[in-house]
Protein: F-box domain-containing protein
Amino acid sequence: MEGLPRALLEEIVKRITRRTDLNSLSLVSKQFYAVESENRYSICVGCGLYPAKLVMASLCLRFPNLCKVEINYSGWTAENGLQLDNEGLSVLATCCLSLTDLTLSFCSNINDSGLCWLAHCKKLTCLKFNTVPGISSAGLLTVAVGCKSLSALRLIGLEKVASVNWLEYLGSKGLLEELVVVACKGISLYDLLKFGPGWMKLQKFEFDEVKGRYKIEQPHDPSHMAHYQYKYDFCCESLKVLTLTGIVTLPEIGLRFFLSNCKSLEKLCLHYVIGIYDSDMITLSHSCNNLRSLSLRLVPLFNGGLECRDFRTPLTDDSLKALALSCRMLETVELTFLACEPMYPSEISFTQNGLVMLIQSCPIRDLILTGANFFNDEGMKALACAQYLETLELMDCVATTDTGMRFLAHAPRLINLTLRQCDRFSDHAVIEVAHARNLSL
Structure:
């Protein structure tokens, strides 16, 4: 081992991806130890980091070229010892000079005072805070001012963040390309308007008010004036990925104007958005011709009819038709219907004909259907003729049977099939299709 060329050793190290294997490799010889130390660019530590400050200093010394560091205390208990605190963060910031990507998750001993040390990380471009209770708006402003190279900021579960002066500052500099805000109670959809000119460069934006769940509340924009919509006419033509979850909108508050300005949009996820209608999707299809991926998660809402159970999902085949006509680059489609009862098929406003029309009009390669009660064996027959379909995932699609499954044996490009809670398929039919198509199940 000691006689192997260094270039060969470096190539061996680069091809090993599992951290446990890398740790074992470093024990083989001193040369491997040195090469592995110099070529380790990422590390993830957490509950085993004790004593935290001393171990962090040791890690920075052993791996001088670390670029990506994740500190995750998920599942931490008092028996694991004290967590990394502000002093430990100062060691990381001053000793890890190549740091470009930092994630802090469930770090209870780090607060606003410790974030000032991140200004020493001159190369830091990506920063993620996940459930760090000691961080407030003041700390985020410190980060915004001190981290001059920051281009990606992800905030998850920061309950002490109230004001958005840090967001205004970042917007005025126009440096961010990615902004993720999830379950931060003090940040509303309307606060994000203060990002201002920052929208011009932003390429990825994710906003989830309630962390993957939805609630129905009357939206309130304190500064909103009826029929006075100029404030929403911001430029976001660089935006390529947009995810909105659990928000409530009104016709005059933002959504339609937001989508109409995202001319470069390639991936759109609208999950449990209350207040979205066909007109919004038609606007989207006209302005976002480059759309490649679409994820819609819908719930039935009261339709205002006379019947006591007049609940329907808000989008109809008109949305699917608009997408089929204008978004001819669409490759990935996910349709999820939550809390739609099979005994009430009218709760889902999409029809099988609308979905088939979309599949026949666009080069759909990946299709995910969850709770699609309208989708039956005739729909499976149409999928068998889809020229581009490679991956199909069905979950809780109760109207499909073995008859429909057997149609998939003739799907020209199908290579991946995932089935969950589809009780009407027999093992025999699935195995028959798997053998016919040599599928990965």
Residues 344 and 373 are 9 Å apart (CA to CA). The chain has 15 helices and 16 strands. The first strand starts at residue 42 and ends at 46. The first helix runs from residue 6 to 15.
